[in-house]
């Protein structure tokens, strides 16, 4: 997801990506800021998962190069009930003072196959 591509982000919100059920995955973020990320996953109006992970503190990178952070490995839900709907996700990048640097919504669904 390119956070600078607003049209692409709007498309991800309306057209969910498909994730295979029961597989291990992790989120990777490339960034030039040093704050925390919060993702809240909701389904049918209920929060089904909340993940908050710290990016840490990073000094200026030589030549303005970006850092890459791999977050903890998770396992996607499986089963017919997990596949029965679309998951709405709101992801945010905020600092310790509550200043929001990025805030976007996207969606995914689970499938037996890709």
UniProtKB/TrEMBL annotation:
Record's protein name: Uncharacterized protein
Organism: Trametes sanguinea
